[in-house]
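Reviewer 2 asked us to include a model.

Predict the structure of this chain.
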Amino acid sequence: MRRQHLASLLLLLALAIEPLSAKVRCTPIYIYGVAASFNDSIIYITDIQLLDSGWVESKSGFLVKRSEYTSQYRNHLIGRGHNNRTCIVTFADNEKDIKKKYAKLQKKLQGTKKHPKKYEIRHVDYEEFKFQTMAPDITDDVEIEVDKKAEKRAAKAKDKKKTVEPPTNSGKPTGQDQPSDLPPAMPPRR
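Predicted model (structure tokens):
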């Protein structure tokens, strides 16, 4: 009786492992990064960037190698002398969703008129930092799809950006009237 239960359990495990092969799709994505520290009130936010080939898991919608994108941003900040930052990246498949997420974050960081937040927001321009595409580790268990519709959307977005003048930095809150090229080093709060 025990052997039958063991055999049926092994059979179920063998069947359960089969459909675990991951499907990833290559699609253009929009991405931005945020870095904050518990030691001071400065928050660094990148511009929204378009990556031509982002790899996203089809079932879960997770960005493949998300931690690598975070590491890219953290390493850039460490190179600029801003150590001990907690970094995150946020992404979306279309421009409308990412702009909505970006605006929600900006609103949350600024607070309300009655209860303003005391964060100093510094923007990291596209010329200063660019995310590099990270390809997934290709194994036998990974199926790759290419999202053609998303490629067309990204091409339209690129064409629209070429025709529209880039916005100036005057609309972005920086906390102080300082150029965002080289932010001054501030000692951590105590």
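Residues 21-168 form one domain. The radius of gyration is 22 Å. We have added this to the supplementary material.
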